[in-house]
Amino acid sequence: MRFYTLILASVFLSTSVMADDTETQDPITEVGVVKIEWQNPKKFRDIKTSNERQSRFEARLFETLTKNLDKEVTKTLKPNQKLEMQVSNLDLAGDMRPTFGATTGDLRIIKDLYPPRMTFTYQVLEGDKVVVAGDEKLVDMTFMNNVRNRNHKPFQYETVMLKNWFNKTVAPQVN
């Protein structure tokens, strides 16, 4: 009887693992004039959470970055233009460190040594026409100096990096 229980348990475990593997649809976030496709986030360099369910953390991360970028982009783009991005890699500022039981989760240590990084392609569309397009591999080595107001908003370093990129690279080409 114990043998059959073990076999049954292993079957349930293997089917639940296979169910997780089949869920490979890339998340897409869209806010205002910004649409971002997050390509295979499980392979991103570092988007680990410290004390939250990973899927919930990723949804919050992607939505926050999209919303924050939209606030900047809408200042520049014409009413009939939109920005589309396909993010292939993301590394949040800082590094996750285990606490070995001192707290309920790991801690993200923010130091100059661990800058935010992002790899993506983008295009600005006016209707169906591509106005600007390109590939980017962003690294913000001065991220600790760029955030003047240390109000600890979620994903502030990544938001500033994206806003700076947009204003320096895309905005001059659109205007």
From TrEMBL:
<keyword id="KW-0732">Signal</keyword>
<dbReference type="InterPro" id="IPR021557">
    <property type="entry name" value="DUF3016"/>
</dbReference>
<feature type="signal peptide">
    <location>
        <begin position="1"/>
        <end position="19"/>
    </location>
</feature>
<dbReference type="Pfam" id="PF11454">
    <property type="entry name" value="DUF3016"/>
</dbReference>
<protein>
    <submittedName>
        <fullName>DUF3016 domain-containing protein</fullName>
    </submittedName>
</protein>
